[in-house]
Specification:
The chain is α/β, with parallel strands linked by helices. Helices cover 40% and strands 11% of the residues. Bound molecules: 6-O-phosphono-beta-D-glucopyranose and magnesium ion.
Length: 211
């Protein structure tokens, strides 16, 4: 396994790592679940981390006795995204977790490339809101992948955009599905939050500053 000194690129997940949008995703899905009278709590929500919008809806609907058509599912996912985007409207550069900017600058000064690897189709909107688009050499997100985490596609695309071999890439993730994706990509997996306690995580951290 690679040592920290051999890492040439860091690929950051966005939701739940650089910004606390994981809570906003939860609140938007909670509105949908409540409307449909489906049991949904933060524990179930942990299964949605890193998972695409449509796959997240499928997980929520597991608790429903009612069957939904593809058309109805599409409408529900769109409604959730409207609630979610409404909650992003008030987001500002102050909503970035702790001293993320300082840490990214430090990594860049140490010669590392930086990328985003997120399943979200709202990635560019969020990076724009928090004024961090220019911090990254590559952005791989829900708009350039066909399979979401735990599939490694999003991270492999990021490595390809950076021109760095996957074995020299480290992924920073809060989702078990993201750690699975990083390992499937042959990358070093740094876990924060929920992912810090996951057995497949190579290195658990409690704050980005520990990187
Ligand atoms: C991931 C989140 O980053 O993006 C998931 O962890 C979310 O919870 C997924 O479902 C897709 O996001 P979006 O913004 O495209 O609905
Ligand atoms: Mg995440």
């Amino acid at each position: 396994m690679i040592m920290d000194k051999e890492i040439k690129a860091y690929i950051f997940d966005l939701d739940g790592v650089l910004v606390f949008t994981d809570e906003l995703h939860y609140l938007a899905w909670k509105k949908i679940a409540d409307k449909l009278n489906i049991e949904f709590d933060r524990k179930i929500n942990n299964r949605l981390r890193g998972v695409s919008r449509m796959d997240s809806l499928e997980i929520i609907l597991e608790k429903s006795a009612k069957r939904y058509s593809e058309e109805q599912k599409k409408a529900l996912a769109e409604e959730k995204n409207e609630y979610y985007r409404e909650s992003l409207e008030t987001m500002t550069p102050d909503d970035v977790v702790g001293k993320v900017r300082e840490k990214l600058t430090e990594l860049r000064n140490a010669g590392c490339k930086l990328a985003i690897g997120s399943s979200s189709k709202n990635t560019k909107l969020i990076l724009n809101k928090i004024g961090m688009t220019d911090f990254f050499d590559a952005i791989s997100d829900g708009t350039n992948i066909t399979k979401s985490k735990p599939d490694p596609e999003v991270f492999l695309k990021a490595a390809e955009m950076l021109g760095i071999d996957p074995q020299y890439c480290a992924v920073v993730e809060d989702a078990e599905s993201g750690i699975d994706a990083a390992k499937a990509a042959g990358m070093y997996a740094i876990g924060i939050g929920e992912a810090a306690n996951y057995h497949k995580t190579d290195r658990p951290i409690s704050s980005i500053m520990e990187i």
